[in-house]
Amino acid sequence: MRNSLTVIWQFLRSFILIYLCLYAGIALSAVLPIAIPGSILGMLILFVLLSLQILPAKWVKPGCHLLIRYMVLLFVPIGVGVMQYFDVLRAEFAPIIVSCTVSTLLVLVIVSWSSHLVHGERKVVGEAEADKK
Q1: Which of the 8 DSSP states describes residue 54?
Q2: Does residue 131 surpass a pLDDT of 60?
Q3: How many other CB atoms are there within 10 angstroms of residue 42's CB atom?
Q4: What angle do CA 34, 25, 70 make, to 5 degrees?
Q5: Does position 124 have pLDDT exceeding 80, yes or no?
C-alpha cells in the first residue's frame, strides 16, 4: 500500500511540476509582446529549471517517461485535424513541397558551414604517415 502511494505521489508531483511550467509559460506569453507560444516558453522554463538543477530531474522523470511512452497517441487528434484541411493542402501542395525542400537544404548548408567554422580543419591520426609513403 505504501509503495503504491509513493508511486502515485511521484506521478502526481511530476505532472504538477510540468503543468506549473506550462502555465507559467502561458502567463509569460500573455505578458510578453513577442508571439511565442506559451507551451514553448513553458518548455524553456522547465529546461532552465532542470539545467540549473533548481528542479531535480527525478521529480519530473515519471511523468516525462509516461508522456514519451504514449506520445504517438497524442498525435492522433492533430492528424485528424489536419485532414479537415485536405483540400487546402492539395491546392497548396507545390508551394509546401518547395518551401520544405528549400528550408531543409538551407538548414543543412548553414549547419555544415557553422560546424566547419567551429571545428575547423583538424589533423587526422595517421594521415601524415600515409602521405610520406
Answers
A1: S
A2: no
A3: 22
A4: 120
A5: no
Rounded CA separation 57/63 (Å): 11
* Number of CB atoms found within 10 A of residue 63's CB: 19
Q: What is the pTM of this model?
A: 0.62
- In one-letter notation, the amino acid at residue 114 is S
Q: What is the percentage of the chain residues whose pLDDT exceeds 70?
A: 91
Kindly state the average pLDDT of the residues 70-99. Answer: 89
pLDDT number for residue 29: 93
Burial 9-38 (b: 16+ CB within 10 A, else e): ebeeebbebbeebbebbeebbeeeeeeeeb
Sign of CA dihedral 123, 126, 129, 133: negative
Q: Which three cell numbers stand for residue 113?
A: 558551414
- Inter-residue contact 14 to 59 (CB < 8 Å): yes
